[in-house]
Amino acid sequence: MNSIQPVNIGLLGIGTVGGGTYTVLTRNAEEIARRAGRPIQVSFIADRDPERARALSGNACRITDDPFAVVADPAVDVVVELIGGYTTARELVMRAIENGKHVVTANKALLALYGNEIFAAAQQKGVIVAFEAAVAGGIPIIKALREGLSANRIEWVAGIINGTTNFILSEMREKGLPFAEVLKEAQRLGYAEADPTFDIEGMDAAHKATLIAAIAFGIPVQFDKAYVEGITKLEALDIQYAGQLGYRIKLLGITRRRQDGVELRVHPVLIPEKRLIANVEGAMNAVLVKGDAVGVTLYHGKGAGAEATASAVIADLIDVARAATTDPDNRVPHLAFQPDQLHDLAILPIEDAETAFYLRLTVDDKAGVLADITRILAGENISIDAMLQKEAEEGKGTTDIILLTHICREKHANAAIGKIEALPSVKGAVTRIRLETLGG
What's the whole-number mean pLDDT along residues 405-423? Predict the structure, then answer.
């Protein structure tokens, strides 16, 4: 094995994931070489802190603070981009492709925004861009969609694909605490960044859902058309009411094929508590995929962390080592479908999404109120699946009504909610959370 030329890796970034990648590559070098057919070794590292890189690697490879030196180096076969962001990272990836190097990246934001451009450039140069680590950390969901389930017409994918928000929602449910308090705890424990906006506003999950949709349905990457709603407005009260009705609330990335286009949305969702995915707690990730032949399959595991994400990075490196010498036209396509076979299916606006709803209303505690509300819902062809009415607190004069609807178009729900909020007996805004059964 040692007489075979190794695959030389240029590693951009030696932070959490980069450090984990170096550690696992070194620790499992023999096993990896047996799988790949060739040794895979880091030969060049770029990091803003060269001393940190040197402390990890010793004198085993060259070290620089200039990532452009790595992508230009003729001795580097594969560039592993782990610096994040989408300005410098984009330039580095495009330069690496231009120099005929394969690329492995964990950068979901970069691919969600510029994936079409990057994959087209890679196709033209005959190189591979692999990105298993960009979605759900160590869970091999990209490989499952692109290869394992390739016999199927994928119907929908729904996933808990952001560990920070799942940790926060788990803590809110278990401890009954408000969002702001749990967020502080998540930051203290290192589950949330000092600036958690990308996670809690759903942007991180939307980047991942965009890539999942492209691979599941053979469409271009279209992040700008995704509907994104975070968890910052969720109240502990609604998590409690959902539990009383037999549901858990999770932030999901959902993409669904319909006759008129594709739904692509990220938002909080009520899920029946008997579903396995509803019981995924803490910072874990899980993805459900519904294929016409296989039915519903579930992928569960760590969505982040040094070695979990490194697992996906190195799996990509092994794939690159195996496929590097093959005819580029006979490799697994970047987006699962042959590049000239991508469909330009429309991403549907959220108003056209079809889902059920949880509605919480604060109303005057008097006769006839519920009849007015159900009349409005019926006028929009929305039927009620379940209802919970809380007893009015003494001397308060108002009560909470919680309604679960059957599936309807979002625009009809919007119209009904507007009319319900205009009723004199309804106090304030209606709280609305979408509901998905995620059954077979």
Answer: 97
CATH 3.30.70.260 residue ranges of the chain are 351-435
Phi-psi region of 195 (alpha: psi -120 to 50; beta: other; left: phi over 0): beta
Q: Specify the DSSP element, H or E, that contains 266.
A: strand 261-272
pLDDT, one tens digit per residue, over 358-409 is: 999 999 988 889 999 999 999 999 999 999 988 777 767 899 999 999 999 9
State the span(s) of the chain assigned CATH 3.40.50.720: 7-138+306-341
What are the Cα distances from residue 433, in Å, to 241, 242, 413? 12, 10, 11
Answer yes or no: pTM beyond 0.85.
yes
Region 65-73: what's the mean pLDDT? 98
**For residue 46, what are its two tokens?**
């770029």
Q: Match domain 141-302 to its CATH number in 3.40.50.2000, 3.40.50.300, 3.40.190.10, 3.30.360.10.
A: 3.30.360.10
Q: Which residues are catalytic?
A: 208
Cα separation, 172 vs 243, whole angstroms: 12
pLDDT for res 356: 98
Task: Please give the helix or strand (H or E) that residue 24 lies within, else none.
Answer: helix 16-27
Cα end-to-end span (Å), the chain: 47
Strands of the sheet with 129-130, listed across from one edge: 62-64, 40-46, 7-12, 78-81, 102-105, 129-130
Q: What is the dihedral of CA 17, 3, 64, 84, to 10 degrees?
A: -30
DSSP string, 415-431: HHHHHHHTSTTEEEEEE
What architecture does CATH give domain 7-138+306-341? 3-Layer(aba) Sandwich (3.40)
Residue 184 parent element (H or E) = helix 179-189
Q: Which of 12, 23, 126, 32 is nearest to 80 (CA)?
A: 12
Angular region, 397: left φ>0, alpha ψ -120 to 50, beta rest: left
CA atoms within a 13 Å half-sphere pointing along the CA-CB vector of 34: 4
- Residue carrying the six token digits 């469409």: 219
Return the amino acid letter for 61.
Answer: C
Contact between 249 and 238 under an 8 Å Cβ cutoff? The reply is yes
Region 351-435: CATH code: 3.30.70.260
Cα–Cα distance list, 387 to 271, 375, 402, 419 (Å): 16, 15, 6, 19
Q: What are phi and psi of 135, to 5 degrees?
A: -130, 120
CA distance linking residue 169 with residue 277, whole number of Å: 14
Domain with CATH 3.30.360.10 in the chain: 141-302
